[in-house]
From TrEMBL:
<protein>
    <recommendedName>
        <fullName>16S rRNA (cytosine(967)-C(5))-methyltransferase</fullName>
        <ecNumber>2.1.1.176</ecNumber>
    </recommendedName>
</protein>
<comment type="function">
    <text>Specifically methylates the cytosine at position 967 (m5C967) of 16S rRNA.</text>
</comment>
<dbReference type="InterPro" id="IPR023267">
    <property type="entry name" value="RCMT"/>
</dbReference>
<keyword id="KW-0963">Cytoplasm</keyword>
<dbReference type="InterPro" id="IPR004573">
    <property type="entry name" value="rRNA_ssu_MeTfrase_B"/>
</dbReference>
<keyword id="KW-0808">Transferase</keyword>
<dbReference type="GO" id="GO:0006355">
    <property type="term" value="P:regulation of DNA-templated transcription"/>
</dbReference>
<keyword id="KW-0698">rRNA processing</keyword>
<dbReference type="GO" id="GO:0005737">
    <property type="term" value="C:cytoplasm"/>
</dbReference>
<dbReference type="GO" id="GO:0008649">
    <property type="term" value="F:rRNA methyltransferase activity"/>
</dbReference>
<dbReference type="Pfam" id="PF01029">
    <property type="entry name" value="NusB"/>
</dbReference>
<dbReference type="Pfam" id="PF01189">
    <property type="entry name" value="Methyltr_RsmB-F"/>
</dbReference>
<keyword id="KW-0694">RNA-binding</keyword>
<dbReference type="InterPro" id="IPR018314">
    <property type="entry name" value="RsmB/NOL1/NOP2-like_CS"/>
</dbReference>
<keyword id="KW-0489">Methyltransferase</keyword>
<comment type="similarity">
    <text>Belongs to the class I-like SAM-binding methyltransferase superfamily. RsmB/NOP family.</text>
</comment>
<dbReference type="InterPro" id="IPR035926">
    <property type="entry name" value="NusB-like_sf"/>
</dbReference>
Length: 447
């Protein structure tokens, strides 16, 4: 391997992901397979690529302080990745970063650009990076410290306050521990935890769901339990949605937006695989995934099909269902953790268009609920327009519905006092329980 091949590969990957829309995990996996990197190199390459993408806005701000001319794309990523290493990776010596970056610039460009890279990095080494503590405007400071778009930080500050916004942005930069859901038809949580521990995993039980296990250490995707479908990967907040549907054996249940089927299969398990569970998704391919997941887990009550949930009244009579889950399509602002670049591609306009689709979906499925039946509305986003405002508007227009008086007391004890609990539902922030961000509420039909 050429001495600087690892850092050069990082620049190639960053250019393809950051400027050409390539998928980070796919391109990284491919590069690792094609090159002769050992496990240390692989770890460093992953860290440089994900770290540079995660802190792109912060690093671009620094770059603007040191370079005023427009750079070729590769040269920009070369400098940003060098900055990331000098800013965040204590174990990597600055002189190695500078030396290799200059070599890469010589190979990729001409003498002039190599001199510029050398001058910029030596300047940074001498002066240090600009101090972000000097920024007075809180939104701008949080945005730059945590590399979040300014509009999003401003929006979160206005909706949830500066402290919550700051904590949320900070935790989004840190990966969360993976969690799995035990398949109760195949094993128990105690047995599954014992087996994982005996294989060297560090695990602990979820306090949010009785079927949940948090994996502190070890790659669960390679475990026998995962490969034999005895556990399935699912965030604890998603488990909460399936659980709060509170479906019982023998009921007729609707999961209106179901793919890839994590919550559908969970609900079927809580029903002891007895009753009927209709699952839909807008995309035929995705509905098929739900059916396949159900078959893999031997959950025979699930009937998954393609449909636009805004037209479900064409398929089902009014008052057909005991329970409905509307896990609506959303902007996904709660699931930014471990996805370094996704936050840069969202816009305030996305939030507003999705809020309107969510309202339409709720309008359509609500009449399908039986009187006395319960409907869970959930999203994996953190935004009032898509969450509590959708619920408040719906309740105002539908006095026959109310927030289920048992909603709060049915929540797991550990989250009874969650800071995001209001009269319109529960907003879970990713920092509250070290999970994804999530919103859910359970409504009941009175008449
Ligand atoms: C948040 S995801 C659902 C996740 C799923 N409940 C789970 O736990 O695995 C939202 C899903 O809604 C689907 N969708 C979007 N618009 C829809 C519509 N109009 N009707 C039905 N499904 C829709 C998307 O394809 C996506 O799979």
């Amino acid at each position: 391997m050429k001495k600087y091949e690892l850092r050069d590969t990082a620049v190639t990957l960053l250019t393809r992901i950051g400027d050409q829309g390539g998928y980070s995990h796919l391109l990284l996996d491919q590069a690792i397979r094609n090159k002769d990197f050992d496990s240390r190199d692989t770890a460093l390459l992953t860290e440089i690529v994900y770290g540079t993408l995660s802190y792109k806005l912060t690093l671009e701000h620094f770059l603007g302080q040191f370079v005023s001319r427009k750079l070729d794309t590769w040269a920009k990523w070369l400098l940003l990745s060098a900055f990331y290493q000098m800013y965040s990776l204590d174990r990597v010596p600055d002189h190695a970063v500078i030396h290799e970056s200059v070599e890469i610039a010589k190979q990729r460009g001409h003498k002039g650009i190599a001199s510029l890279v050398n001058a910029v990095l030596r300047n940074v080494q001498r002066k240090g990076f600009p101090n972000l503590d000097d920024i007075k405007d809180p939104a701008e400071r949080i945005a730059l410290e945590t590399s979040h778009p300014h509009w999003l930080v401003e929006r979160w500050i206005s909706q949830y306050g500066e402290k919550t916004a700051r904590e949320m942005c900070a935790v989004n930069q840190v990966e969360k521990p993976i969690s799995v859901r035990v398949q109760p038809l195949l094993t128990t949580r105690a047995k599954a935890m014992e087996e994982l521990e005996s294989q060297g995993f560090t695990v602990r039980p979820s306090v949010i769901d009785t079927q949940g296990i948090i994996i502190e250490k070890g790659n669960v995707l390679k475990s026998d339990l995962f490969l034999s479908n005895q556990v399935t990967v699912q965030d604890q907040t998603s488990m909460l949605a399936g659980r709060m549907v509170n479906a019982k054996a023998g009921m007729t249940v609707l999961d209106a937006c179901s793919a890839p089927g994590g919550k559908t299969t969970h609900i079927a398990e809580t029903m002891d695989n007895q009753g009927k569970l209709y699952a839909y998704d807008l995309h035929a391919k995705k509905a098929k995934q739900v059916q396949q997941k159900a078959e893999k887990l031997k959950l025979t009550i699930i009937d998954a099909n393609q449909a636009d949930a805004r037209k479900l009244q064409e398929k089902h009579e009014q008052e057909s269902f005991d329970r409905i889950l509307l896990d609506a399509p959303c902007s996904g602002l709660g699931v930014l953790r471990g996805k370094p670049d996704i936050k840069y591609h969202k816009s305030a306009q996305d939030v507003l268009s999705l809020a309107s689709i969510q309202a339409d979906l709720l309008e359509e499925v609500a009449p399908l609920l039986k009187i006395g039946g319960k409907l869970v509305y959930s999203t994996c986003t953190v935004d009032q327009a898509e969450n509590e405002q959708v619920v408040r508007t719906f309740l105002k227009q539908h006095p026959e519905f109310e927030v289920d008086p048992d909603f709060r007391s049915d929540l797991p004890k550990a989250i009874h006092d969650a800071p995001g609990l209001t009269d319109a539902g529960l907003q879970i922030f990713p920092q509250d329980f070290n999970t994804d961000g999530f919103f859910l509420v359970r409504l009941v039909r009175k008449g």
